[in-house]
Specification:
Elements (H helix, E strand, L loop, with lengths): L1 H18 L10 H31 L1 H21 L14 H27 L6 H26 L4 H28 L4 H24 L5 H22 L1
Helix pairs in contact: 1-4, 1-5, 1-6, 2-3, 2-5, 2-7, 2-8, 3-7, 4-5, 4-6, 4-7, 5-6, 5-8
Pfam families: Zip
Membrane topology: Multi-pass membrane protein
Subcellular location: Cell membrane
Length: 243
């Protein structure tokens, strides 16, 4: 349990770590944003394909993989349809910074729930190395998300302090959902495989719906593609390191 808490905490607080560059620079080039997002996409695809999905089959079978993966995709699709993700550009229609910040905070709270569940399910798996591996993958995704959040808020005339606080709050929600996922899987061992498949589906949806389009929308498709491959390979090496 202590390991799961530590892993989920580090993964969640990676959002705060992503805000740190904004303490020194106020703008983020499109090239670096695209490269970072693509690298994250590679990490998440690798973790899903080589970690979560094989272990889901091992623990609960191919049917559990199918049902859990589809459930993860459908839930993320539902969230995306009703609560759009933030973008670096300002959105029209808001005149009050506090109202805008509150809506962004709520959106990220809801977006982080499936990610936290993914970490919790992974730590409850029979494969002890899966939890740290998924925590690294989710944490890698949280870092550019925190950076994009900070840029969004600074463009909306928020302070750097507010950006840090909001990043920490969204990370806290991810920790809570990770604990819920861990206890659910620990006391109901027959759902672990479904939970791992759910995590894979959620991560793959994020990659294809958000990360890849974000990394290919500003004319830097080629460096983003290489960055994706390097991210995938990095996660393979991490997987081997955890055994």
């Amino acid at each position: 349990m202590q390991t799961a808490l530590l892993g989920s905490f580090l993964s969640a607080m990676a959002t705060v770590l992503g805000v740190v560059p904004i303490l020194f620079v106020r703008r983020l080039s499109e090239l670096w944003k695209d490269v970072l997002v693509a690298f994250t996409a590679g990490i998440m695809v690798s973790a899903s394909t080589f970690g979560l999905m094989p272990q889901a089959i091992k623990e609960s079978g191919i049917l559990a993989l199918t049902l859990g993966l589809i459930t993860g995709v459908l839930l993320l699709d539902l969230i995306e349809n009703n609560i759009p993700h933030i973008d670096v550009e300002n959105k029209p229609g808001f005149t009050n910074m506090d109202s805008k910040a509150l809506l962004v905070l709520i959106a990220l709270f809801i977006h982080n729930i499936p990610e936290g569940l993914s970490t919790g399910f992974s730590y409850a798996s029979e494969q002890s190395s899966l939890g740290p591996m998924v925590a690294i993958a989710i944490g890698a995704q949280n870092m550019p998300e925190g950076l994009i959040l900070a840029v969004f808020l600074l463009n909306s005339q928020a302070t750097r302090r507010k950006a840090l606080i909001m990043a920490a709050l969204t990370g806290l929600m991810e920790m809570v959902s990770a604990v819920i996922g861990y206890f659910t899987a620990s006391y109901m061992q027959n759902v672990v495989g479904y939970g791992l498949a759910f995590a894979a589906g959620a991560m793959l949806f994020i990659v294809y719906k958000e990360l890849i389009p974000e990394s290919h929308g500003h004319g830097y498709e080629r460096p983003s593609t290489y960055s994706f491959i390097f991210g995938l390979l990095a996660m393979v090496y991490i997987t081997q390191a955890f055994g």
